[in-house]
Design brief:
single chain, alpha+beta, Cathepsin B, Chain A
């Protein structure tokens, strides 16, 4: 049937001449060559694109590393100046009383020009807050867990790397910021000799159960530099093995609004800290404004950047000096929960949470609390029946619920408290009277 449909000459029609066969072969070769060329060109384009992306990524990483290296050098220069001015003489002494003398030195000598570094821009801060609010996956929760961990660290100590004989890196020479040495790229990480023990940090955390500090670590230097100020980290690195108290002044992550039933809406926080670590000085400024010392409050608020990188003893001592100079009517303070360094049989004045709640006073009382989780880097100010927490928009009620909320769950105890209630070098007194606000 099919043969009749094809015709009797169907087979002869299939036969081609040698020339036709040659043309057909050439056509197949051209098509195969074109396909191979297309595939090769696509492969070359893909390799070139991947190479360009890798090179752009490498250049970006190299630029970031260079910026970090230059910033570290600037921070180290500032830290070295501060170290020589305030700490060197005391730290190089030897003897049993070195630690006590060192603590006294920390309280006497103040860091006046602590440069602010590594600050988040407004856009970066908004992205960070959005990141906390949308946390859901394991990776994000791990970052948030690290941020909570940072709040618990109260002191840092640097441990330098230990090298095999002959692998020790050459000592870095001090050069100017614009010197030619800065333009030399660092040795690639893979080509550097590996230390026997990598450089790391150790931390001290408050243990609410034992009431004593416990050691944690080792902490990765990159992790420490990410969460702490550059100048402060370089200052810690200048004296390996020494414990340095961390900076007081922590902004609150994520949703910072306290429950409405804990707020007093008619008393506004005039000087909020926003995203900056200014809780100590901003809280004091807002409390002074409430007490009617408006000019002094604005002046003190303007000095907030100075406190951002100060360690706790230095920050409190600087606050004492500022209050004496700017607010002499309550320039001197009563210090609670701190051992008297002068001796002479003076007992340590104690302020408990119950004392703070029951014995209200019209005088500003700066409080640095211990949270149940050991956190110890936030502060607030109590006046009358109000709490001035600079992370809030309004003042909070002075009650146990407010204290527990501020500490992220439960306030364990009071670490240090300063009550400014005595005039300094003047007969003027605080005009603010005891007031009930809720």
């Amino acid at each position: 049937m099919r043969r009749r449909e094809r015709g009797s000459d169907w087979y002869s029609k299939l036969r081609k001449t040698p020339y036709q066969l040659k043309l057909a072969k050439q056509k197949l070769k051209r098509e195969r060559f074109a396909e191979e060329l297309r595939l090769k060109q696509e492969q070359i384009a893909r390799i070139q694109k991947e190479y360009a992306e890798d090179r752009a990524k490498a250049e970006k990483v190299a630029l970031e590393q260079d910026m970090i290296r230059r910033q570290d050098k600037k921070d180290r220069k500032v830290a070295l100046g501060l170290y020589k001015k305030h700490y060197k003489d005391q730290m190089e002494k030897k003897g049993r009383s070195v630690e006590r003398q060192l603590q006294d030195n920390l309280k006497k000598h103040l860091v006046k020009d602590f440069e602010r570094t590594n600050q988040l821009t407004k856009k970066e801060q908004e992205e960070w807050e959005e990141f906390f609010n949308s946390a859901g996956d394991k990776e994000k929760k791990e970052v948030i867990k690290e941020s909570a961990y940072v709040k618990e660290v109260k002191s840092l100590s640097y441990v330098p790397a230990k090298w095999y004989p002959g692998d020790e890196p050459a000592a870095e020479e001090e050069t100017d910021e614009d010197s030619a040495q800065d333009d030399q790229p660092p040795v690639p990480r893979l080509l550097r000799p590996k230390p026997r023990v990598p450089a790391h940090f150790l931390g001290l955390m408050h243990d609410p159960k034992s009431k004593f500090a416990k050691q944690t670590g080792p902490l990765n230097p990159d992790w420490v530099k990410y969460y702490f100020k550059g100048v402060f980290v370089q200052l810690v690195m200048l004296q390996p093995g020494r414990w340095w108290p961390v900076v007081v002044g922590k902004s609150r992550e994520g949703n910072s609004a306290a429950p409405k039933d804990l707020l007093v809406p008619r008393i506004k926080i005039i000087f909020p800290q926003n995203s900056q670590d200014h809780c100590l000085i901003k809280g004091v400024a807002s409390s002074l404004f409430y007490c009617g010392l408006k000019t002094e409050a604005h002046t003190i608020s303007g000095s907030a950047s100075k406190f951002e990188c100060l360690t706790k003893p230095l920050a409190l001592q600087e606050l004492k000096n500022i209050m004496r100079n700017l607010v002499p009517c309550i320039g001197d303070c009563m210090v609670f929960n701190v051992r008297n360094s002068g001796g002479g049989g003076k007992k340590k004045k104690i302020l408990t949470i119950d004392d703070l709640l029951e014995n209200k006073t019209r005088y500003p009382t700066v409080v640095i609390p211990y949270g149940k989780d050991g956190s110890n880097n936030h502060s607030f100010v109590v006046v009358d029946d109000l709490i001035f927490d600079s992370t809030q928009t309004y003042a909070m009620r002075l009650c146990r619920d407010s204290l527990d909320w501020i500490c992220g769950g439960q306030m364990e105890s009071i670490n240090v408290a300063l009550r400014f209630n005595t005039s300094h070098g003047t007969k003027e007194k605080l005009k603010h009277k005891d007031t009930t606000n809720w």
